[in-house]
Specification:
By secondary structure, this protein is of the alpha/beta class. The chain is 29% helix and 27% strand. The protein has helices at residues 17-27, 67-82, 111-122, 151-161, 176-186, 228-239, 258-264, 291-302; strands at 9-12, 34-38, 44-48, 56-60, 87-92, 126-130, 145-148, 166-170, 189-199, 202-209, 216-224, 244-252, 269-273, 285-288. The strands form three sheets. The protein has a seven-stranded mixed beta sheet, with helices on both faces. The chain is globular.
């Protein structure tokens, strides 16, 4: 007898509840019920408060530090597996620990690979995520990975700005391919920043490859953490004659002195998504929602419809 495909259910880890509620609304159904029991020492236990046997479920949660966010996702995946869910999709708007995607010096871990193995071991049968720090992280998984691009969110916003003399820019050499892709779609120039680091989050020297005088520059990156690189790049470009400098970054980690740096910098605007749910105390920050994108892809996954249109500009 053929198995009837039940209506999928959507659940959320606590860090991503605001975004998950928007995704569920766009998908057309409420969030499923999950209860978290907590012990005095900080240990916690999630439990699904409704049957998920034989169903397709989506568990939404970004895994940015602290490690509690990743641990929540792992526990919920394990609980779903043990409750006999039929398909278990981990929806990770932001894939945390992704900057450790290779051995860049001796005796260090490859955390992005470790996280992939943990997610699969815990019970994920599919991964949906957005703008990985490195595309090759998809290869760390044995399960299907749907890697979405936030360009489908940013491009309409940039076109609406209708900036004259537009120039796309990468804040480092590693992001040059991303900046070039935007520049090709928008038919604009492209420049690249060359930077040297003393250690993580500390830029000691930066040079500009290309001409920005008289141009409206848009920096493109996958994430902004302390905002040191972006603000340094923006200040350098204004010094070199840029009319304005904006930045679009998918994931707004914004830790340490990030907000102070942004407010005191020459950045006109920082545009991010809500892949990480938090309040942003800065008038320069513009947040665009990724809820519609994830809801659409989740629906396509459930109905076995092509999602290739979400992989291109």
């Amino acid at each position: 007898m053929a198995v009837t495909e039940l209506t999928p259910k959507i659940f959320a880890c606590t860090q991503s509840i605001p975004l998950a509620e928007q995704i569920a609304k766009a998908f057309g159904q409420p969030l499923g019920k999950v209860n978290f029991s907590r012990y005095s020492d900080g240990e916690y236990q999630p439990s699904f408060e409704e049957s998920i046997r034989g169903t397709r479920i989506f568990i939404i949660g970004s895994t940015n530090p602290s490690s509690d966010n990743l641990m929540e996702m792992l526990l919920m995946l394990d609980a779903a597996k043990r409750a006999s869910a039929r398909h278990i999709t981990a929806v990770l708007p932001y894939y945390g620990w992704a900057r450790q995607d290779r051995k860049d010096k001796p005796r260090v871990p490859i955390a992005a690979k470790l996280v992939a193995k943990m997610l699969e071991t815990a019970g994920a049968t599919r991964i949906i995520t957005m703008d990985l720090h490195a595309d090759q992280i998809q290869g760390f998984f044995e399960k299907p990975v749907d890697h979405l691009f936030a360009s489908t969110i940013f491009m309409p916003y940039l076109r609406k700005l209708n900036l004259p003399n537009l120039c796309m820019a990468s804040p480092d050499m590693g992001g040059s391919k991303r900046a070039y892709t935007y520049s090709k779609a928008l038919e604009s120039d492209v420049v690249i920043c060359y930077k040297q680091r003393e250690k993580a989050n500390v830029v000691t020297h930066m040079e500009l490859i290309g001409e920005v005088k008289g141009k409206n520059v848009v920096l493109v990156d996958d994430m902004v953490d302390t905002a040191g690189t972006l603000t340094k790049a923006a200040d350098l470009m204004v010094e070199r004659g840029a009319l304005s400098v904006r930045a679009i970054t998918t994931h707004g980690l914004l830790s340490g002195d990030a907000y102070e740096r942004i407010e005191n910098s020459k950045l006109t605007e920082l545009i991010i998504t809500d892949s990480i749910s938090k309040d942003h105390p800065s008038s320069k920050i513009k947040v665009l929602s990724c809820a519609e994108l994830f809801a659409d892809v989740m629906h396509r996954v459930h109905t076995n419809t092509s999602i290739s249109s979400k992989f291109v500009l």
